[in-house]
Each structure stands twice: as C-alpha cells, then as structure tokens.
Amino acid sequence: MEALRVEGLSKDFGGVHALSDVSFSVERGERLAIIGPNGAGKTTLFNLINGQMLPTSGKVFFWGQDITHMHAYSRAHLGQARSFQLISLYLNLSVLDNTLITLHGIKRSRFQMLRPTTAYTDLLAKAREILSPIDLWERRDELVRNLSYGEQRRLEIALTVALEPKLLLLDEPSGGLTSAESSEITDSICKLGRDITVLLVAHDMDLVFGIADRIMVLHYGKVVANGTPEEIRADPRVKEIYMGIEENAGNTTAT
Question: Whole-structure pTM over 0.90, yes or no?
Fold first, then answer.
C-alpha cells in the first residue's frame, strides 16, 4: 500500500527550476533515501512534501489523499513528522521539558492550559520510556544547550518518533556528527517499526546504505536513478554525477 505518492512535482524560483517533473511513490514501511549533490533539490522536495512550500505544478498524495495545498500543521495531524538539518529543540529548556512539550502537543490535554505538564503522570512515564534508551533520562533536568550536538540530534529524532508518525521525514540526521554518533543514529533508525515509513535525505553514504531499502538520486532537480542500494551502487550515471567517478573504456578512475 502506498504511503506517499508524488506526481510531476515541479518548483520554480523565478527563472530557477529547483525541481522538474519529479514522480515517485513510497510503500508503507519502506525506507527510501534521497541523495544527490548540493543544490540537487533534495530539501526543496522535502519542503513540498511537508507543506513548507507549495509546488509550481504537480501533486502530493498521502495515503491516497491529495495534500498538495494542505498546510504543514494539517499534514502533521495526518501523521507526517519531520526532523530538520538544524536542531529545532528548545535549547534553554530542560531535556524533560522538551519531551513533555512534545508529548503534550499530541494529546487532547493540550487544550487545558491551567495545569503544568508535570501534572500528567502518564506523560512522565512516557518521557522516561523515550529518554532511557538514548541515555538521557538521568540528564532530564539538564538544559538542552548543555548537551553535545550528538545528544541533541538523538533527542530530536527520538521526539520526532514520539509523535507516532506514519511518515517520518529525516533531513540530514547525521549532519555534524562524529562517526560513532552517526552509527548510533543509524542503529536508532534501523530499530524503528515498519509501521513507520521513512523518507531520508543524507550525504552520509554509510547511513544511507545502512538504512535504505531503495535509493533515489536527484541531479539538477530531476530524478536520474531510482533503485535498490545495489543497483544505485553499480549505476554508471550515479558514479559519474554523484560520486564524481568517470568510467572510460571499462576503467573506473576517481576524479
């Protein structure tokens, strides 16, 4: 069953064609990675799927529903969740406060403004369930700004998953992390249940090939390849365009 379908999606900024006639679909539970050089249109595509921007032309369907002109908050209520390239946590609040605010936002109790979030014992229990696996429960009273960048990134992804999304959009989840931290993020994503469909934009090839069921390559706003990791790894267009490798007379030479 299709979780997401994109049909002929294009986005122009004046005379610049950021995306041109992009079409693809993502099955329920699938892990699709989108790669490509800087300026290929990856983040623009995410913005169109997530409702941060409206397309110049084309359509976006989420579980069969046309959401092309739907606001981002409405898409969130349908089950989309996104982590951004830049940390979007409340840096001057504690780890626990960030977690409780996130959990409170998806409960009907968010409309009851006269009680502190700590009054909800069920939310505290859920917060512990979220923070313990990422080793942050013992640091729950620490201000987020005092965490390492890797810890902040792990927290952000954990909170995004806590929204119980049907579709999880991850924009450069390992950006700025060490190899060890990136490996931890990869493991965390691999452990997600298949009830969550994952769409991933990344430059980290170890993360991409460690997670993706399928990889789509963008170049100058167009889809140039779409296939399994093995097919993408062997595709000469990807080697030439993305990996910076040219094949001449059967010889592969790095450039």
Answer: no
